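Many introductory courses stop at the sequence. We go one step further.
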Amino acid sequence: MTIEKTIAEAFTLPGHIRHIEPLGKGLINDSYLVTTPTAKGVLQRINADVFPSPGKIMANLRQITDYLARHRDPGIRLPGIIPARDGKDWVMDEAGGYWRMLEYIEDSENKARIENLAEAEILGESLGRLHCLLAGLAVDKFHVTLPGFHVTPNYLARLDRVLATTKSLPVDVQPIVDFIQQRREQAPILEDDKSTGELPLRIIHGDPKLDNVLFSKTTGEPMAWVDLDTIQPDLVLYDIGDCIRSACRGKNGQFDLDTASAVLKGWFREAKFFLTPAERHHVPDAIGLLPYELGIRFLTDYLEGNRYFKVSYREENLHKAQKQFELLADIEKKSASLQERWENIQAE
């Protein structure tokens, strides 16, 4: 019997297990679809090398799922927790690994890209709706599951340390390093205002990229947000910035301003009820900061031997870094237009 089946049988998924198969293309956790004659569940091994306290992840998730269950029609779903037979929300294997099982959401699919502006707008609205719901939760009751996540100055400092110990850079890496260095001053733009309290902490998704939204196969609309390990207190600006980063990169790798505007329009329709003036002011900054941050992380991981992100070939993280910086360069070219559109959205 495989470890996956042994662990799966420790959860309360009804029925005899017929199939267990790998699910998705996650870069961090290992995920499996578990099927019985009457039910399906998503079995996941939480990567403890990335998340040092898996129990805190599950405590956060339990708070949120219980909170949403008290709303008659929350307008958005998160996958529910399928508890273990001992009543806990996780199972620990003999090696100390943490496993959980979550609800499998039927009639759903991922989208590789946003196809039109209507889809973009409802994507933004869905994220805004999630933020509105989470705004009702007390920040001090939640754990930080991934310390330092989205703290761009820390990622930049780590890259500096790696570069300092690298004897010689490949020819195709030096231009990327130069690009990063020319923009160092933008790294702390959000963290500085967070440290002073100008930007408030809220409960955020943490990783609301397009891959982490499930769309209805029937209506085409967003059904649920998944990959919830990074739910924690942080800046809501990181969420909208990351959503736009992932959803608004056109087929040619450039920044799709129209799609970004549609996402912002849908998001602001919901988020306007809680956003402070400082948060509104920094939205364009967040849209530029997130590809900068992720590009730094990809490049650092490449230089360190691809230890964090799963890769299928050695240069994959390098190529991903290049794509993020190409996106950022185009965002910079269109920054005046982006600012104007954001101001118009707020004025509507």
